[in-house]
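Form 7-S
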Amino acid sequence: MEGLQEYINQLVIQGMLYTTQLPASVSSAIYLYGSNDIKNVVAFIDVSEKCDGTRGMIIGDEGVYFHFKNNVSILYKDIKELFLIIKRNHIKGKVKTNEIIVLEDLPIHLESFMKILSLMSDVDINIQMSMYQKIAYYVPVVLNDLENEEYEDVLLDSMQIKQINDFKGDLEVINKMEEQDYQYELETLCIKALQFFDDLGLDSEEIDILLDVYKQIEEKNQKEEDMYENAKKYYDDMMDNYKHGDGSMFNNVKSIMSSMGIDLDNLKDQSPDEMEKTINDICDRFHISRSQLEKVVNKFRH
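Output:
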């Protein structure tokens, strides 16, 4: 079956993979966590310390059987739904048969395993991730496809190859950032990547997903823009009233800030280091990045 061997070859994180000459330990595996109904072993992964088959996975024509923490068997004909939940630092699979089988923290490449189940059962994988994870996931997919010449009639010049490498380098840096900066930088990268793909005339499902993410970013930014404008209007009205002797709005803001632990009177006497700490505390408390806070400040400066 096309693609099956490729996914099998990608499975192993630890242990030994056998696809042709099966070791004697496969008999122990079949006895311990397999089935007498197994007619043909397509692949066997042995992750046991002594390579005795006590921990591992059997991939057969009709199902998979494995023991990593406990015995699990999945027959392809019983699969109703497949889910892959991708988060920034965690990936989890769910297989719906007559029960829900949760797959996580396994010594195999989970995404490749889910693709094997999808291929053998003819059930599509429902991939669930945030819009930020979609950027981090699909941009490298398109970049790798470009490098592997998956897009017909696209010949990359040296400058475009450099751009691809720059994108990959940026992603490595972004992946090390704190969450708020991580999200902000991924938004920026998504816009640049889509422009790059458009310049090359690319079209694919992955790019369609990224375009949908871009629309979500635009909608989110518009809501933030409206929020900033409303806040600026309130600020302008407050200062205008204050100049004309009405300090009620200003006092109200001071009261609200005080209830949040921010003393406006103390801010003016802080040293640069103390101010830096206060800014970081504000960002942590309200779950915003420095770049977002600077954006708000710039709005009020103009």
